Amino acid sequence: MQYYSSGRLSQHLLWLACLAGVVGLLAARFLVALAPVVGVLAALANPHLRRDLPHYFRNGAARWAAALVGFLLLSGLYTSEWATWRHELFRELTWLGVPLAFAVAVPLSARQRLAVGSLFVLGTAAVGLATMGQYLLDPARANEAIRIGQNIPVVTRVFHISFGVMLALACFWGALLQRGLRAAPGLRVALLVAAAIAVLTLHVLAYRSGLLVLYAGLLACAVRLLARRHLALGLGLGLLLGLGPWLAYRTLESVRERVRSTVWDVEQFTQGHDINDYSLARRLAAVQTASAVIGQHWLLGVGPADTHAAMMDEYRWRDLGLRPGNRVEVHNQFLQAWMGGGLVGLALWLAVLFRPLVRPATRRDPYVGLFIITQATVMMVTDALSLQIGLNLFVFGYGFLVVAAERRAASLLPPS
């Protein structure tokens, strides 16, 4: 009874949900599905639930997340893909459960948050190191796969785009966490080594989306340093931004093959060649197809559950030479939101994504800033939320960083 009434049960359940979520992202999919359930149980186990439940409704980040679910519910008035709509509604419940956990459950202590962050950084680096070892067993064969546009599979079967984002986040968060006062000297060294491994893995495996995210984040850091008049650090990081890709291209065959295959891929589209066997060219064709759909349904969209059907219908009118099996979805989260929800849905998604960068409670938090920038960057080249791992990664980070930060800021305000 004391365990419950002291709030430790609620706090430990939330901590368990976070640890399970990290392990699930890296290796065990079933844990990702269970983590939000445990998080909701943590909220319900709060001994002061009646007092703290209003925190959820007063938390702006949680309200905007709930608005996404509300919009999907309203889209049921004009959807024609009812089976898909019901499936999407079930998936979107995570937008309610995860923010509820971080807004209502007894908050994690600073050491518990450090443990969750360290597990993410060290675990991601460990999986990256194992995957890099797999590459080094037969680099010639791996480089040949890269030459034809394939990617080295992650040892735990995580989708390579999501894992590239996780590697970039591990680099940034490892560098930030090791500066914390609560990190022991041994942990600081381990976090720095893990951050270095994450950067090396991204370059050796030449994960295109992950490298884009990494350098976008570094550019944001350089701009922030220069804006704060840390000229030496800002200019030094800017120099690294130019030198890093050049060194990688000169020293790593995998990077050279990735650049060549990317240029060749784009040329197939721009020159009007057969693009059925080229991944990036098919994505460009999908952008063109999605743009046509958006032009016809620009205000409210076709409905979030109807985007696939709308894309396939448009392909039937203009197939761009693609065989049915090669007609892909649009790999751009912003276009996906615009196509599914029109300007209304796009505005709602932009509010959810970028609101943390304009709110004082979260704008000054470097963890939040880097998370939003990296997510926004990768969403320009993939419809991240359409993939379960992409949705889980974003919603977990959103709850752990944004919702929790707004709750902490609200707790510091004087009572009204």
Describe the overall structure:
- The protein has 416 residues and is mainly α.
- 76% of the residues lie in helices and 0% in strands.
- The protein has 20 helices and no strands.
- The protein has helices spanning 2-5, 8-26, 29-44, 49-58, 60-75, 82-92, 94-104, 110-137, 139-147, 160-177, 185-205, 208-227, 231-251, 253-270, 279-296, 307-317, 333-354, 360-363, 366-378, 388-412.
- Helix 19 runs antiparallel to helix 20.
- The protein is globular, with a radius of gyration of 22 Å.
- The mean pLDDT is 94.
- Categorize the overall geometry: globular
Outline the biggest β-sheet.
Answer: none
Tell how many strands the DSSP assignment holds: 0
Distance between the termini: 33 Å
N-to-C SSE series? HHHHHHHHHHHHHHHHHHHH
Q: Percentage of helical residues?
A: over 70%
How many helix segments? 20
What structural class results from the helix and strand content? mainly alpha
Keywords:
416 residues; mainly alpha; 20 helices; 0% strand
Give a brief rundown of this model.
The chain is 76% helix and 0% strand. It is an all-alpha fold and 416 residues long.
